[in-house]
Amino acid sequence: MTAQPNGTDLASLPVGHIAATMPGAAAVFIQHGVDFCCGGDQRLAEAAAARNLDLATVIAELGEWTDAADQAWNDAETPVMIEHIKIRYHETHLRELPTLIQLARKVEAAHKNNAVVPAGLGDLLSRLFAEIRVHQQREEIVLFPMLLRGGDPMAASAIATMRAEHDDHGAALTEIDRLTHGRTVPPDGCATWNALCTGLTKLYEDMIMHVHLENNILFPRFEPPKA
Questions:
Q1: Model confidence pLDDT, tens digit, residues 157-170
Q2: Dist CA 221 CA 210 (whole Å)
Q3: Residues 38, 78: Cα–Cα separation, whole Å
Q4: CB of 16 closer than 8 Å to CB of 26
Q5: What ranges make up the beta strands (E) of the chain?
Q6: Which of 2, 20, 98, 109 ranks highest by number of CB atoms within 10 Å?
Q7: What DSSP designation does 114 have?
Q8: Do 14 and 25 touch, CB atoms closer than 8 A?
Q9: pTM of this structure
Q10: What number of CA atoms fall less than 13 Å from residue 99's CA on the CB side?
């Protein structure tokens, strides 16, 4: 077993690298709102400071995770990872987002006079759904076959486009959190509102892990090394 980095080493490592190599790190980062997918190049010390987190506490929590069942995807073969992404994330997003759109529209209609109703959420989720459908089609029809062939000169350009679209998805998640006050339900919220926020939290966590696997583990295999 490879020795885990000590606290000093962790503080200076990019959060994307930590999430990719330390079992359970992604869960810790999600809990604290640390962006390790689109913001994966940020070092842990910088990420903790940006979120007003105690660095020593975060490092201690990272050190508590030793779950061997949390697969280190950086060791997985590319075809295995791509198949996992397609089944676990692509199919899940396409299946669950239409339900979230319906729930959002019901909440907006039923609670339109509530000061904290997430007005505009249904439209936002509809746009995100349309963007994700196109994005995933590009990956499955164009990019993934390239990568399964071992990559080619066009792969880096296609990856850059996918990374930019991931940034757009991250911006949508930020706007969802703004509209829903961190995916929270007010005291007078109904069962539909609770179901909506529960579903949005799953969407958030799924998309963070989805983008992480691609940005920090899969794509770097086919990109030129950073200077």
A1: 999 999 999 999 99
A2: 16
A3: 21
A4: no
A5: none
A6: 20
A7: S
A8: no
A9: 0.77
A10: 15
